[in-house]
Amino acid sequence: MLYVINGNEVEPLIQVSNFEMVQEVKGGFSVTLTTHNKDRKNPAYSLLKEESIVSVGDYEFRIKSLEENIFGKQITALNVFYDLVDIYKKDIYGGTRTFSDFVAFVLGGTGWGFTFDNSLNDHRLIENFGQNNVIALVNALCQVYQCEFMILPNNRIHFAKEISGDYDAQYRYGHNVKALSKNVDTTKLKTYIEGYGAESPNGGQLYVSYTSPYESIFGKREAEPVHDDRYMNADSLLEYLKTKLIDYPEVTFELDSIELLDKELGEKVWLIYEPLNIEFQTRILSQKKKLVNGKIVTASVVLGNTLPKNMSDILVSQKIEIDENKKITRSKFEQTNDRIEMEVEKVGESIANLKIEATQIEARVNNKIDQTEASLNIKADQINTSVNNRITNEVSTINQRADGIDFRVQNNAGNIANLSIGLNGLTSTVSSQGGQINGLGQRMGAAESSISQTAYQLQFKVSTTDFTGNRIVSMINQDAWSVSIDAQRINLNGATIVNGSITGSGEITGQTKINVGTDLTVGNNINMQGYGGNKITFADMTSIVSNGSGDLAFDLWGALTIQSYMTKFYGGVDFSNAYVSGLDASSVNGMRFALNSATWGNNPNKSGRLYLNSYQWCPVYSG
User: Fold this and answer.
1) pLDDT tens across 185-233, in order?
2) What residue ranges in 47-162 does DSSP mark as E strands?
3) pLDDT interval class at 597 (50, 70, 90)
4) Residues 303, 282 contacting (CB under 8 angstroms)
5) Consecutive H or E run containing 155
6) Domain check: are 119 and 74 in the same one?
7) Residues in CB range of 588: below 8 A, 6 or more apart
8) CA atoms within 13 Å, Cβ hemisphere of 530
9) For a surface tag, which of 202, 382, 415, 442 has the fewest beta carbons within 10 Å of its beta carbon?
């Protein structure tokens, strides 16, 4: 039953003649018919207008051509799939994507669904795909993937390399197949072709040639050479040349043989064509259906030919596919309105990727063999680069901004080296987790050294944290006015010259010789720690000597002057080898005595002197 749909109105269409529905493997699908309104008994007649819809079973066709006269109306309608010519895809969806991705983009939002053979769903590169109407994009997609599409009921499309299949049907022209009409064209027939592939790494270019077996029939007819640097394998290029060579006459036959009317659209049929003494494979290129007793039946078909095929061609197709997968390199390109992404892969060895967006550029190179990777990220306000070795777990990074640059090297063990350069200063840091500190004989849980430099200050810092949690830090701070050293121990090896005062608290230890050219100020005590005798020597060779046994000796070239309010002696005082003079008072065994110029004792020759020894004592006088 036929219906006409015009807006919200739906009416059955009767009184129909000359009905033909033609469907082609290349996608064409149309209906032509003539109708009239005899005795005003055709309800849909008034609805038949430009752009109204004729419904045939589960298909709908929109009227594109209408001729009307006093006898009736003659219309031509296209399947409503072709309404999609008025839907424009404004976005760009180019790049390397799967067939499913491309079709989903094209038919998205149209109300049409799709199916496809699995053999189509591989990755292909289509640059700048988009910005066109849906029908143009479908045709472009079929051109790239070398496939066909078929319109199915209920607004669905099916894509396949070839619609229908090969059921090994065979016919002989002029015997069980007779033509209503035929067309034979040998204009494009060629029997020889040459192909040029990629440049070889060792120099030279890949070259192959192919001669058709039909050269013995048609002679040598050379086709235009093929140049395609995607091919690096001779077998693959050879099979590609065969697909580009038309070595058979192009023929079409319109047939009404009952044996062919039940064939599927696109089905392959072997045809023996005796006038040229060749056998080649044809297909059901189109079906013409008519309305017979209220039913739509196939009335005739059109046979057309493709490349001659045989059983080995199945293996050839597989071989092409396998060889293409063995390409040394393959590339990928994706483009949308806001992004471009490119990728080149050396199969099993390395991948290079470049991604360009409105806000950033990303570049990455990955070597699968030595497990290394380098990346670059560029934004308007910063640039990041990194190199990663997955085997040694080492990573180096550089972060560059308008106000500074950071350099960093690290590994998974926690070892990190960092250098930061900014407008206000420079800082470098080296840190480690675990290790042995030389000279300390102590395992450390963490260690870090850093250098910080500004216009006014330099700071050097080394810190460690042992496994008990104790933190040890040494630091040197330098500015224009001073240098500060903070450490548990400061070792000065070699001559140390100090021009200025040394102040503060603490100890100076070790065997280092201290030579002070000016005054030396000591807070409290001076401790002589050397073994045996100790000696303090003055510039005129006068010295104070300790013999290491508790005796102290003054070695003087001149006089020893003691000036004090009171001088006290405890213990024995031995003047056996000394002269005593000029005393105002003295004390011996708690007795006081006075001295003047008189002669004392039994020694009248020692005028003004007091001579004391163990054998002679002087009496005590006051005066």
Assistant:
1) 788 889 999 999 888 767 788 899 999 988 888 889 999 999 988 888 8
2) 53-56, 59-69, 72-79, 88-98, 113-116, 123-126, 130-133, 148-152, 156-160
3) very low
4) yes
5) none
6) no
7) 612
8) 11
9) 202
Do 151 and 29 touch, CB atoms closer than 8 A? yes
Residue 281 pairs with which residues in a beta bridge? 270
454: containing domain: 349-486
The C-alpha atoms of residue 99 and residue 147 are separated, in whole angstroms, by: 11
Distance CA 563, CA 570 (A): 18
Could you give the CA distance from residue 429 to residue 417 in angstroms, rounded to a whole number?
Answer: 6
Structural domain count of the chain: 6
CA-based Rg of the chain, rounded to a whole angstrom? 55
Q: What is the pLDDT of residues 515-527, one digit of tens each?
A: 776 777 777 777 7
User: Which phi and psi angles does 107 have, rounded to 5°?
Assistant: -95, -5
Check whether residue 235 and residue 250 sit in a common domain.
Answer: yes
Rounded distance between C-alpha atoms, residue 535 and residue 547, angstroms:
8
Partner residues linked to 3 by β-bridges? 12, 55
Q: What is the pLDDT of residue 47?
A: 93
Phi, psi of 575 (to 5 degrees): -110, 30
pLDDT digits (tens, 9 = 90+) for 526-576: 777 767 778 888 878 898 888 877 788 888 878 888 888 888 878 777 767
DSSP 414: S
Q: Amino acid letter at 382?
A: Q
Angle at 287 between CA 281 and CA 291, to 5 degrees: 155
Q: In the 8-state DSSP scheme, what is residue 264?
A: P
